[in-house]
Design brief:
101 residues; mainly alpha
């Protein structure tokens, strides 16, 4: 896989995964609950889990291309904030959009 193509793949995967908790009522898109709506805390937990899943996929792709570089806490702080920014459209759709009756 080309380096540029794999970079765009990880970015698009992160954008889709960041919005997944806010766009459906299933946990990780798979498990449904008896309650009709997920709470905000459950959505945030799902967001954290998806962050680590996307990070593992990105690490796997990086190791397939060449050497995987060791990262320090700064990398994870920046990518965590970027993942939160990517989840903003889903958050707006779920909580800030005006509901028409």
């Amino acid at each position: 896989m080309d380096v540029s193509l794999s970079s765009w793949f990880v970015i698009l995967l992160a954008a889709a995964a960041a919005n997944l908790p806010f766009l459906n009522e299933r946990f990780l898109g798979i498990v449904s609950f008896k309650r009709p709506a997920k709470s905000l805390w459950l959505r945030l937990l799902e967001l954290i889990i998806l962050y680590f899943i996307v990070g593992a996929i990105a690490y796997f792709i990086e190791s397939r291309i060449g050497n995987a570089f060791p990262q320090r806490w700064e990398f994870y702080a920046i990518t965590g904030c970027l993942f939160l920014v990517l989840s903003f459209p889903g958050f707006v759709f779920r909580y800030l959009r005006k509901q028409h009756a």
